[in-house]
Structures are given as C-alpha cells and as structure tokens.
C-alpha cells in the first residue's frame, strides 16, 4: 500500500505463545513496556479498531490520546465520544487516509486483522514468552511475512511485571 502520498498500513498487536491476543474481551497480561511501545509507535497517527477493541479499553483511556480514533461497527446506532464511527473496514481505511498521515494503524481485534492483513505493509508484533489461556488469536502469517527487525536481536526483555517479551517488525517479502 505504500507509494507516493499513500500512507503505510501497519498492524500492531501483542501475542502470547500460540498467537493468543485476548481472553474474554481483554488482554490477558499486563506488560507496561509493550503499552509504552504501542503509544510511541501510534502517537500522532490514525488508529483503527473494532468496537470490541474500543470497549476493551479502560474508559479513562478512551479515546486514545494524541491519535485519531476510528471505530468500526456494524451497529449503525452505536456512538462513542471521541471516536469517529464507520461501518466497514475499507470505510475506516478511506477515512483514516484523509489528511495524508504517514501511517495508519490497525489496532485490533482479530476480525479486523483478518479483514485487512492482505492490505497491510508492516506488522509490529510484541511476543510474550508465556503460555497464557485465551479465546482470541492473531492471524496466521504466511511465508510472505519476514521479520526485518527484532528488539532484542537475540533473547528477550524482562518486563517489570515478570514476563519475557520482544518486539518484532515484519514486512512483506513479495509484492502484491
């Protein structure tokens, strides 16, 4: 999706072993360093999310400060203070590109990731090195996605909450 004046479409999520990204409508871990990473990457950019992801945010963090919040829902009556509401993934992408942002971020959930993975240019994935039960999984990545950066390069960071984690950046290896 990148090109002259076309914003990069990037996805961001954290996952435990087995690709677990959620449990009962929330993230089943707390890694403050990942939240800081998320904020640093998405700050100043549009963030697209499904209604369940919006609902999973603690009310004091809605809308996500410093970002244009766009929420996708099929419910035409649903409204959210501080967010723009649209009714399709493509409608959200179209709205987010108004104003020529450098990057448009897809922040979840699983349905939105699946709908837009084929259009994404970059993935920012925080891996949590733990077996954590959950009911929501990240999309399965095809071989066209390659890790182009890892932090740390080898091994894991240790969160102050006691979980090992690392940041991975993926890019497509072939063109669409």
From TrEMBL:
Instruction: Show the stretches that span the lipid bilayer.
Output: none
According to its UniProt record, the EC number is 1.5.1.3
Identify the Gene3D superfamilies for this entry.
Answer: Dihydrofolate Reductase, subunit A
Provide the catalytic activity annotation: (6S)-5,6,7,8-tetrahydrofolate + NADP(+) = 7,8-dihydrofolate + NADPH + H(+)
What's a single GO MF annotation on this record? NADP binding
Keywords assigned: NADP, One-carbon metabolism, Oxidoreductase
Under the heading PROSITE patterns, the entry gives: DHFR_2
> Pathway involvement?
Cofactor biosynthesis; tetrahydrofolate biosynthesis; 5,6,7,8-tetrahydrofolate from 7,8-dihydrofolate: step 1/1
Q: Does the keyword rRNA processing apply?
A: no
The DHFR domain extends over: 8-172
Task: Determine the domain of life of the protein's source.
Answer: Bacteria
GO aspect biological process, one term: tetrahydrofolate biosynthetic process
Which terms in the GO cellular component ontology are assigned?
cytosol
Entry similarity comment: Belongs to the dihydrofolate reductase family.
- What is this protein's function? Key enzyme in folate metabolism. Catalyzes an essential reaction for de novo glycine and purine synthesis, and for DNA precursor synthesis.
Q: What is this protein called?
A: Dihydrofolate reductase
Recorded source organism is Salinibacterium xinjiangense
């Amino acid at each position: 999706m990148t090109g002259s004046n076309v914003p990069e479409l990037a996805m961001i999520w954290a996952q435990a072993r087995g690709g677990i990204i959620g449990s009962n409508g929330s993230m089943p871990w707390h890694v403050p360093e990942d939240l800081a990473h998320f904020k640093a990457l998405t700050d100043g950019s549009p963030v697209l999310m499904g209604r369940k992801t919006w609902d999973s945010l603690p009310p004091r963090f809605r809308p996500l400060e410093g970002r244009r919040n766009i929420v996708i829902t099929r419910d035409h009556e649903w409204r959210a203070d501080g967010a723009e509401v649209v009714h399709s993934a493509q409608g959200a992408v179209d709205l987010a590109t108004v104003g020529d942002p450098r990057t448009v971020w897809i922040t979840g959930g699983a349905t939105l990731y699946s709908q837009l993975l084929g259009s994404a240019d970059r993935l920012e994935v925080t891996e949590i090195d733990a077996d954590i039960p959950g009911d929501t999984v990240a999309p399965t990545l095809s071989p066209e996605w390659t890790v182009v950066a890892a932090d740390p390069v080898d091994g894991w960071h240790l969160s102050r909450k006691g979980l090992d984690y690392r940041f991975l950046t993926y890019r497509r290896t072939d063109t669409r």
